[in-house]
């Protein structure tokens, strides 16, 4: 048996093992989803969606947690996306290559893998205490913005790198300035990749609990936030609280809340994927 045959056998073995692990992971995920849906679907109704939290499981609802989650994600989008895309565009197209820029790029890439609790401590020190925002929805949104910024920056840079240089050269040959080339050629061509990074970052942010607990998200809030400085609750926090209660009714409510959180995540991702595909079809 020569080396080529050995390599083929090894490659086939790795592919087989990888396929088995993939199927096992899918099976486990299906079982978990089935159990959650089986337990929680009976609890989902209009009263559950519009009721306030309660110490009685049959009366507990997720109205404040849903509103808090949507408000938090909206603010995070407003803060993080313009800054992240702008920073990625600057680093890739305008920043001069030097030791400082190289060090900055390495640190940004490393920040994408930092545990979320570290961002919670950072938000606690800067936004809650230094700026005096307290445990408000503003502090939570700014903390999550810091959490997802590295992902958006890295995704933006990689999407811009993937744009063929010939497109830029053609734009310059027609007399376009650098900003016109970026605005009319580079950003539209890289929009799909940028939006993919945004989707991944928001999917991570919507399920985060640890940094928001540190910042001051509350498990019981009997009102929806009316300003940026109001206290807030979120679905992951509500789910975590209910799962720690001994009553079986709270376990059922937690399963129902998980279903709602999954639906919100799928809807957000679906909208983003639709916009990305629509944009790519428009370009093609």
Automatic annotation (TrEMBL):
InterPro entries: MetI-like, MetI-like_sf, Phosphate_PstA. It is found in: Cell membrane. It is a multi-pass membrane protein. It comes from Gaetbulibacter aquiaggeris. The chain crosses the membrane at residues 20-41, 62-91, 111-130, 137-156, 185-203, 210-229, 249-275. This is Phosphate transport system permease protein PstA. NCBIfam families: 3a0107s02c. CDD domains: TM_PBP2. The keyword Isomerase does not apply. PANTHER family: PHOSPHATE TRANSPORT SYSTEM PERMEASE PROTEIN PSTA, PHOSPHATE TRANSPORT SYSTEM PERMEASE PROTEIN PSTA-RELATED. The keyword Transmembrane helix applies. Belongs to the binding-protein-dependent transport system permease family. CysTW subfamily. Its main location: membrane.
């Amino acid at each position: 048996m020569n080396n080529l045959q050995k390599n083929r056998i090894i490659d086939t073995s790795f592919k087989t093992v990888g396929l088995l692990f993939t199927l096992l992971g899918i099976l486990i995920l299906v079982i978990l989803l089935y159990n959650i849906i089986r337990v929680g679907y009976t609890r989902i109704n209009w009263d559950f969606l519009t009721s306030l939290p309660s110490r009685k499981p049959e009366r507990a609802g997720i109205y404040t947690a849903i509103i808090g989650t949507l408000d938090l994600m909206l603010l995070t989008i407003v803060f993080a996306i313009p800054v992240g895309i702008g920073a990625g565009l600057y680093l890739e197209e305008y920043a001069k290559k030097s030791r400082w820029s190289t060090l900055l790029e390495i640190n940004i890439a490393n920040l994408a893998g930092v545990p979320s609790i570290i961002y919670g401590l950072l938000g606690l020190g800067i936004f809650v205490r230094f700026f005096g925002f307290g445990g408000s929805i503003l502090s939570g949104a700014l903390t999550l913005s810091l959490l997802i910024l590295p992902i958006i920056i890295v995704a933006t840079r990689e999407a811009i790198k993937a744009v063929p240089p010939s497109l830029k050269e053609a734009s310059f040959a027609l007399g376009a300035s650098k900003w016109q080339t970026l605005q009319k050629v580079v950003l539209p061509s890289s929009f799909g990749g940028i939006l993919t990074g945004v989707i991944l970052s928001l999917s991570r942010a919507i399920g985060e609990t640890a940094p928001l607990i540190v910042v001051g998200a509350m498990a019981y809030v009997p009102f929806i936030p009316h300003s940026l400085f109001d206290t807030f609750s979120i679905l992951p926090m509500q789910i975590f609280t209910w799962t720690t209660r001994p009553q079986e009714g709270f376990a059922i409510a937690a399963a129902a809340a998980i279903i709602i959180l999954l639906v919100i995540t799928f809807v957000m991702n679906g909208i983003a994927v639709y916009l990305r595909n629509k944009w790519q079809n428009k370009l093609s």
